[in-house]
């Protein structure tokens, strides 16, 4: 039987984990672990039979698309893949129309829109007009389902996350100015769960000040901590989790060429075996993927025994199934 907390989640949006209490997120994790256990045992859990999720992609994706789609099928429902190149969602259809119309066809609407300064506002506008839950598959500010899978993975690998040291570090990438949504959601959720979080980056790669303030407030409430650091190697020392990935200098410049010039100054910010050896015994390496191999992280580390990246990617499936089962059930 569903508890009051679980029942209360029906119809809820998952746009930013800050909108959910710690107790609610603990329920999501409990359900995620249970669905993972049932899948391992081959136990069917068609909780969302006849339900349909619309998945709107304004940007490309591998893990997010595949895990939401597989998750809906495993829950007995169906996921529609709606991407911007072959539909009208990027021109003509307003967020209000998307919320109204797709909310009448479907039982949930999931959206990826990472347009800087627009993505989160778009998702919130769709949610305002929708009669069904809206799930954020990554926007310019947050990637809540990635953070839920990250927390689930840390609990699996380390046990109780309280008091554990998490190094959330910027890393060099040659490809492009990546969104800041992964580190923002991660510092918010990890501080909500009492972790000692180090946020490590060069000066040009700040996260949004109000998000950092929210994370500090979370840490005060959970008796965790948030420490801001600028030395790449300092972040590794004694850490239980090294989560080093690139993000753009988006609060410094949104110009791609200027951003690339800033990024190029920090080519030595790469996770390698020598640096991982500075972390605690049994430390794990995490990355949401895709990684720029040989640039952000060496093959030795990402393919090595400390790497948790495949379990982390798998847990996207279980965490998202839990959110869908609780909100769309
Ligand atoms: N980590 C993640 O969101 O991967 P995709 O961009 O491939 O969905």
Q: At the third CATH level, what is the topology name of the largest domain?
A: Rossmann fold
What proportion of the residues is helical, as a percent range?
Answer: 40-55%
User: Helical stretch count?
Assistant: 13
Strand portion: 5-15%
The distinct bound ligands, ions and cofactors come out as: phosphoric acid mono(formamide)ester
Explain the layout of strands and helices.
Blueprint: H1 4-8, H2 22-41, E1 52-57, H3 63-74, E2 78-83, H4 95-105, E3 108-113, H5 119-129, E4 134-139, H6 144-158, E5 165-170, H7 181-192, E6 196-200, H8 209-222, E7 225-229, H9 232-236, E8 241-245, H10 256-264, H11 273-276, E9 284-286, H12 299-302, H13 309-328
Parallel strand pairs: 1-2, 1-3, 3-4, 5-6, 5-8, 6-7, 8-9
The structure holds phosphoric acid mono(formamide)ester.
Features:
single chain; 329 residues; alpha/beta; Rossmann fold; 5-stranded parallel β-sheet; 4-stranded parallel β-sheet; globular; binds phosphoric acid mono(formamide)ester
């Amino acid at each position: 039987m569903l508890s009051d907390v679980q029942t209360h989640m029906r119809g809820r949006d998952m746009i930013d984990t800050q909108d959910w209490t710690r107790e609610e997120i603990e329920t999501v994790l409990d359900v995620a672990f249970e669905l993972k256990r049932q899948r391992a045992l081959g136990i069917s859990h068609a909780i969302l039979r006849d339900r349909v999720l619309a998945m709107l992609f304004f940007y490309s994706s591998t893990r997010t698309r595949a895990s939401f789609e597989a998750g809906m099928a495993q829950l007995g429902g169906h996921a529609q893949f709606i991407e911007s190149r072959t539909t009208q969602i990027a021109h003509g259809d307003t967020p209000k129309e998307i919320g109204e119309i797709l909310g009448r066809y479907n039982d949930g609407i999931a959206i990826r829109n990472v347009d800087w300064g627009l993505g989160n506002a778009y998702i919130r506008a769709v949610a305002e007009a929708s009669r069904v839950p809206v799930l954020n598959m990554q926007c310019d500010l947050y990637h809540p389902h990635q953070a839920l899978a990250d927390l689930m993975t840390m609990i699996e690998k380390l046990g109780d996350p309280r008091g554990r040291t998490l190094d959330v570090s910027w890393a060099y990438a040659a490809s492009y100015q990546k969104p800041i949504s992964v580190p923002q959601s991660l510092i918010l959720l990890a501080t909500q769960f009492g972790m000692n979080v180090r946020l490590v980056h060069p000066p040009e790669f700040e996260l949004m000040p109000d998000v950092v303030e929210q994370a500090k407030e979370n840490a005060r409430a959970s008796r965790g901590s948030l420490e801001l650091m600028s030395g790449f190697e300092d972040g590794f020392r004694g850490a239980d989790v090294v989560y080093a990935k690139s993000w753009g200098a988006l609060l410094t410049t949104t110009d791609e060429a200027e951003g690339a010039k800033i990024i190029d100054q920090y080519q030595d910010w790469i996770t390698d075996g020598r640096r991982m050896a500075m972390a605690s015994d049994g430390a794990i390496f995490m990355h949401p993927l895709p990684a720029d191999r040989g640039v952000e992280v060496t093959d030795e580390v990402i393919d090595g025994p400390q790497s948790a990246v495949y379990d982390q990617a798998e847990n996207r499936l279980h965490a998202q199934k839990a959110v869908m089962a609780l909100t769309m059930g």
